[in-house]
Amino acid sequence: MLRCGGYLTHLSSYQLSSARQLRALCTKLEGVGVENASNPDQKGPSGTEKTQQNTGESAENTNHEGKTRSNRSSPKIQELLRVSHASEVGAVSFFRGQSWATSGRVDVEYFLEQERQQLESVKNMATENHSRPSAMLPALEIGGWALGVATALAPRQVSLAVAGAVQDSLAEQFNDQIRELRERGELDKVEGLRESLRNLRDTPRAPDGAPTPPDLSKITKLQDLTPESALGAAVQISCKVAMGLAKKI
Description:
- By secondary structure, the chain is mainly alpha-helical.
- The protein has eight helices and two strands; from the N terminus they run ββαααααααα.
- The chain has a two-stranded antiparallel ribbon.
- The N and C termini lie far apart (88 Å).
């Protein structure tokens, strides 16, 4: 047994009759070992290649997961979408009540159809962003419908005062949502959210001539309020309270 270049060689004395033959065989075996170690065309990925491949796959998975996480809505966005959905449920119910009381008057039907479209848009966005519905929805449906019936049967000035208060309350709410999300840097984190909130804010919900409810912070005496202004202010306060509850429950 002879060791040549790291190889164990079993040779008889007959096969290696001279020292020259032994040296030639060892040289040949060592050359084969060097050639195999330096051959770049070996089949199958090397350990380095496998490591690089695994690292690339891990980075790709990490990037994909990070993108998914960034697309998930924050709790604040989910909360605001829940309030927006509740607001539109109340608005649709309000105009449904008016439509019932007026037997489908043309202008009321216009507002009703408009709010139905807005409600569908907000509902889809809330579902996509995993925003749960508010537990206030049944109360908003009943209250909105009753208020709509009452204002449709009331004198025109009273009806306009309530419609103006509803419109002003919703516009203020959606405008506050836009401002809050902008300050938090989350307004553009959900595709289409900015446009949706702007449309909700700018949607007209009252006929021409509807008065703007008074700013209660600037009123020093109740005697300064007309009955219509007082009713509009009461409706506005009620809307804010209802939306505050919808945000929490």
